[in-house]
Amino acid sequence: MENKTICDRVKEIREQYGLIGTAVDPLIIAQENGIKILEKSNLTINGEPVSGAIIKKNNDITIYVNAEDSKVRKRFTVAHEIAHYYLHLDKNKQFVDLKRNNSKAPMELEADEFAGCLLMDTEHVNERYEKAKSIGLSNEGIVSVLAGIFVVSDAAMYTRLKNLGKF
Ligand SMILES: [Zn+2]
Protein backbone atom coordinates (compact mmCIF):
# COMPACT_ATOMS: atom_id res chain seq x y z
CA MET A 1 0.00 0.00 0.00
CA GLU A 2 1.03 3.60 -0.47
CA ASN A 3 0.94 6.05 2.41
CA LYS A 4 -2.82 6.03 2.50
CA THR A 5 -4.39 3.42 4.68
CA ILE A 6 -7.07 1.13 3.33
CA CYS A 7 -9.68 2.99 5.39
CA ASP A 8 -8.58 6.32 3.88
CA ARG A 9 -9.09 4.89 0.43
CA VAL A 10 -12.49 3.51 1.41
CA LYS A 11 -13.54 6.88 2.83
CA GLU A 12 -12.91 8.46 -0.58
CA ILE A 13 -14.93 5.75 -2.30
CA ARG A 14 -17.81 6.17 0.18
CA GLU A 15 -17.83 9.89 -0.54
CA GLN A 16 -17.58 9.39 -4.28
CA TYR A 17 -20.71 7.22 -4.33
CA GLY A 18 -22.60 9.14 -1.68
CA LEU A 19 -22.58 6.26 0.78
CA ILE A 20 -23.37 8.09 3.98
CA GLY A 21 -24.21 6.79 7.41
CA THR A 22 -24.34 3.35 8.94
CA ALA A 23 -26.13 0.71 6.85
CA VAL A 24 -24.58 1.50 3.46
CA ASP A 25 -25.32 -0.69 0.45
CA PRO A 26 -22.15 -2.03 -1.22
CA LEU A 27 -24.19 -3.04 -4.28
CA ILE A 28 -24.25 0.61 -5.34
CA ILE A 29 -20.48 0.56 -5.89
CA ALA A 30 -20.76 -2.58 -8.01
CA GLN A 31 -23.56 -1.10 -10.10
CA GLU A 32 -21.72 2.17 -10.66
CA ASN A 33 -18.65 0.27 -11.85
CA GLY A 34 -20.57 -2.04 -14.20
CA ILE A 35 -19.87 -5.10 -12.09
CA LYS A 36 -22.48 -7.82 -12.36
CA ILE A 37 -23.74 -9.49 -9.22
CA LEU A 38 -25.03 -13.04 -9.46
CA GLU A 39 -26.42 -15.10 -6.62
CA LYS A 40 -25.92 -18.80 -7.04
CA SER A 41 -27.28 -21.62 -5.00
CA ASN A 42 -24.57 -23.77 -3.38
CA LEU A 43 -21.85 -21.70 -5.00
CA THR A 44 -18.76 -23.69 -5.91
CA ILE A 45 -15.75 -22.52 -7.88
CA ASN A 46 -13.42 -25.20 -9.25
CA GLY A 47 -15.33 -27.71 -7.17
CA GLU A 48 -14.79 -25.82 -3.92
CA PRO A 49 -17.68 -24.40 -1.89
CA VAL A 50 -17.15 -20.66 -1.34
CA SER A 51 -19.21 -17.75 -0.03
CA GLY A 52 -18.25 -15.48 -2.90
CA ALA A 53 -16.00 -14.86 -5.87
CA ILE A 54 -15.03 -12.13 -8.29
CA ILE A 55 -14.15 -13.22 -11.77
CA LYS A 56 -12.77 -11.04 -14.52
CA LYS A 57 -12.97 -12.30 -18.06
CA ASN A 58 -11.94 -9.92 -20.81
CA ASN A 59 -13.72 -6.77 -19.67
CA ASP A 60 -16.58 -8.45 -17.86
CA ILE A 61 -16.39 -8.51 -14.12
CA THR A 62 -18.83 -10.59 -12.12
CA ILE A 63 -19.23 -11.03 -8.40
CA TYR A 64 -20.80 -14.32 -7.36
CA VAL A 65 -22.52 -14.64 -4.02
CA ASN A 66 -23.64 -17.85 -2.34
CA ALA A 67 -27.45 -17.67 -2.23
CA GLU A 68 -27.78 -19.67 0.98
CA ASP A 69 -25.73 -17.25 3.09
CA SER A 70 -27.43 -14.84 5.49
CA LYS A 71 -28.15 -11.24 4.47
CA VAL A 72 -25.31 -9.85 6.59
CA ARG A 73 -22.89 -12.42 5.23
CA LYS A 74 -23.84 -11.59 1.64
CA ARG A 75 -23.25 -7.90 2.30
CA PHE A 76 -19.80 -8.62 3.66
CA THR A 77 -19.02 -10.92 0.72
CA VAL A 78 -19.96 -8.22 -1.80
CA ALA A 79 -17.87 -5.64 0.09
CA HIS A 80 -14.94 -8.08 0.21
CA GLU A 81 -15.10 -8.77 -3.53
CA ILE A 82 -15.39 -5.04 -4.27
CA ALA A 83 -12.18 -4.67 -2.25
CA HIS A 84 -10.41 -7.00 -4.67
CA TYR A 85 -11.77 -4.89 -7.53
CA TYR A 86 -10.11 -1.77 -6.11
CA LEU A 87 -6.99 -3.28 -4.60
CA HIS A 88 -6.01 -6.31 -6.61
CA LEU A 89 -7.77 -6.51 -9.94
CA ASP A 90 -5.04 -5.92 -12.46
CA LYS A 91 -6.51 -4.16 -15.45
CA ASN A 92 -4.98 -6.53 -18.02
CA LYS A 93 -5.24 -9.87 -16.32
CA GLN A 94 -7.84 -12.37 -15.41
CA PHE A 95 -8.49 -12.53 -11.74
CA VAL A 96 -10.30 -15.08 -9.70
CA ASP A 97 -10.91 -14.73 -6.00
CA LEU A 98 -12.40 -17.42 -3.88
CA LYS A 99 -13.82 -16.13 -0.64
CA ARG A 100 -12.99 -18.73 1.93
CA ASN A 101 -13.46 -18.50 5.63
CA ASN A 102 -10.62 -17.23 7.78
CA SER A 103 -8.00 -17.10 5.07
CA LYS A 104 -4.80 -15.46 6.31
CA ALA A 105 -3.37 -14.68 2.86
CA PRO A 106 -2.28 -11.00 2.71
CA MET A 107 -4.68 -10.10 -0.14
CA GLU A 108 -7.54 -11.70 1.77
CA LEU A 109 -6.72 -9.78 4.95
CA GLU A 110 -6.58 -6.54 2.94
CA ALA A 111 -9.92 -7.31 1.34
CA ASP A 112 -11.48 -8.01 4.74
CA GLU A 113 -10.04 -4.77 6.13
CA PHE A 114 -11.45 -2.83 3.16
CA ALA A 115 -14.86 -4.49 3.62
CA GLY A 116 -14.79 -3.66 7.33
CA CYS A 117 -14.05 0.01 6.63
CA LEU A 118 -16.70 0.14 3.92
CA LEU A 119 -19.52 -1.36 5.97
CA MET A 120 -18.42 0.02 9.35
CA ASP A 121 -17.14 3.55 8.87
CA THR A 122 -14.64 4.54 11.56
CA GLU A 123 -16.33 7.79 12.61
CA HIS A 124 -19.80 6.28 12.76
CA VAL A 125 -18.61 3.23 14.66
CA ASN A 126 -16.77 5.41 17.19
CA GLU A 127 -19.83 7.59 17.66
CA ARG A 128 -22.23 4.66 18.13
CA TYR A 129 -19.76 2.87 20.38
CA GLU A 130 -19.53 5.85 22.73
CA LYS A 131 -23.32 6.16 22.82
CA ALA A 132 -23.80 2.47 23.60
CA LYS A 133 -21.10 2.59 26.26
CA SER A 134 -22.60 5.69 27.87
CA ILE A 135 -25.86 3.86 28.55
CA GLY A 136 -23.95 1.09 30.28
CA LEU A 137 -24.14 -1.73 27.74
CA SER A 138 -21.75 -4.64 28.18
CA ASN A 139 -19.18 -5.29 25.45
CA GLU A 140 -21.33 -8.13 24.21
CA GLY A 141 -24.37 -5.85 24.14
CA ILE A 142 -22.45 -3.15 22.29
CA VAL A 143 -21.35 -5.64 19.61
CA SER A 144 -24.90 -6.88 19.15
CA VAL A 145 -26.51 -3.43 19.01
CA LEU A 146 -23.91 -2.02 16.61
CA ALA A 147 -24.06 -5.12 14.39
CA GLY A 148 -27.79 -4.47 14.03
CA ILE A 149 -27.29 -0.80 13.20
CA PHE A 150 -24.60 -1.45 10.57
CA VAL A 151 -26.25 -4.64 9.25
CA VAL A 152 -23.19 -6.82 9.73
CA SER A 153 -22.60 -10.01 11.68
CA ASP A 154 -21.67 -9.86 15.35
CA ALA A 155 -18.32 -11.42 14.42
CA ALA A 156 -17.59 -8.70 11.85
CA MET A 157 -18.51 -5.95 14.32
CA TYR A 158 -16.43 -7.54 17.07
CA THR A 159 -13.39 -7.64 14.76
CA ARG A 160 -13.94 -4.01 13.69
CA LEU A 161 -14.21 -2.78 17.29
CA LYS A 162 -11.17 -4.80 18.26
CA ASN A 163 -9.18 -3.29 15.37
CA LEU A 164 -10.25 0.16 16.56
CA GLY A 165 -8.83 -0.67 19.98
CA LYS A 166 -12.15 -0.75 21.82
CA PHE A 167 -11.56 -4.18 23.39
ZN1 LIG B 1 -10.94 -12.61 -1.27
UniProtKB/TrEMBL annotation:
It comes from the Bacteria. Pfam families: Peptidase_M78 (PF06114). InterPro entries: IrrE_HExxH (IPR010359), Rad_response_metalloprotease (IPR052345). Residues 61-135 form the IrrE N-terminal-like domain. Signal peptide: none annotated. This is ImmA/IrrE family metallo-endopeptidase. It comes from Clostridium yunnanense. The lineage of its organism: Bacteria, Bacillati, Bacillota, Clostridia, Eubacteriales.
